[in-house]
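TICKET: design request
STATUS: open
ATTACHED STRUCTURE:
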């Protein structure tokens, strides 16, 4: 059990996929965890299944008032905010030439601006509480380029950069900020992807949400000398291809 009992964590996009696994991992560490998501039914069911140390609250990461309400709820229910995991994300499809401008903007809104808003409203609370941890779930698309998902790639590179700037600003307040860069992981987001795409990876399989959650748990509870750091979890994909 962590020494951080009595403090709260917020996981955006926590109702399913990687976020739900992160919620479960942080509950095991003794945090009171707010599942913050658009998916009211899934989020409420997950909170019910995980027990007293979780609550669901509706959050659209792009809406300022939602953030203010959810942070207040987390602190009211479980104590001062200790951890924010900016995990909510979408992927939009289209090349630089073909993607409709509004769709490109929407990807940036959710995947980049939404995480910035979360840090903007959470950081003062973490500061007041004497420190904390922010984990931004980027992607291998924040480390290399991919064709056909221009908005996603731009947002995930942006999130990696935002992590570095925030780490510099918040380090003196004992707030660590790290980014996590998963390769393909089995979740609803990747359900339509063909698994042959990972054949050239050193570890030629998709990852599981629990593997990403274990890394996030490490960053939060044990990675006490890491900030501004990029944690890659991709079966070796960005190291190179075996085929
Ligand atoms: P998912 O689609 O299963 O879950 C994403 C969650 O985010 C959903 O519950 C969704 O409702 C929520 N969400 C979307 N827009 C939101 C908004 N505006 N406000 C609040 N919540 C919102 O996806 P996942 O695969 O679990 O992805 C989680 C994170 O991991 C994302 O940031 C994604 O980009 C990143 N990621 C996933 C993979 C992968 O292969 N699955 C790889 C690299 C990075």
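STATUS: resolved
RESOLUTION: sequence designed for all positions
ATTACHED SEQUENCE:
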């Amino acid at each position: 059990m962590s020494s951080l009992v009595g403090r709260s964590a917020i996981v955006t996009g926590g109702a399913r996929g990687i976020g739900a696994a992160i919620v479960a991992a942080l509950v095991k560490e003794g945090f009171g965890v707010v599942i913050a998501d658009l998916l009211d039914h899934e989020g409420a069911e997950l909170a019910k299944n995980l027990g007293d140390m979780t609550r669901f609250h509706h959050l659209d990461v792009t809406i300022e008032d939602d953030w203010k309400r959810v942070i207040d709820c987390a602190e009211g229910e479980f104590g001062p905010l200790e951890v924010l995991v900016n995990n909510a994300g979408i992927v939009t499809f289209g090349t630089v030439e073909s993607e409709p401008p509004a769709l490109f903007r929407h990807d940036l809104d959710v995947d980049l601006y939404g995480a910035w808003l979360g840090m903007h409203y959470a950081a003062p609370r973490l500061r007041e509480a004497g420190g904390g941890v922010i984990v931004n779930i980027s992607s291998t698309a924040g480390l290399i380029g991919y064709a056909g998902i221009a908005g996603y790639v731009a947002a995930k590179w942006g999130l990696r950069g935002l992590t570095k700037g925030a780490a510099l600003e918040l380090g003196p307040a004992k707030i660590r900020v790290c980014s996590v860069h998963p390769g393909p992981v089995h979740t609803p987001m990747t359900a339509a992807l063909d698994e042959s795409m990972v054949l050239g990876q050193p570890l030629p399989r998709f990852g599981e949400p629990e593997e990403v959650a274990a890394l996030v748990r490490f960053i939060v509870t044990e990675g006490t000398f890491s900030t501004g750091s990029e944690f890659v979890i991709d079966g070796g994909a960005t190291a190179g291809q075996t085929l």
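CLOSING REMARK: Residues 12-13, 15-19, 37-39, 59-62, 87-90, 110, 114, 137, 139, 182, 184-185, 187-190 surround nicotinamide-adenine-dinucleotide (CB under 6 Å). Strands lie at 8-12, 32-37, 54-58, 81-86, 132-137, 175-182, 230-233.
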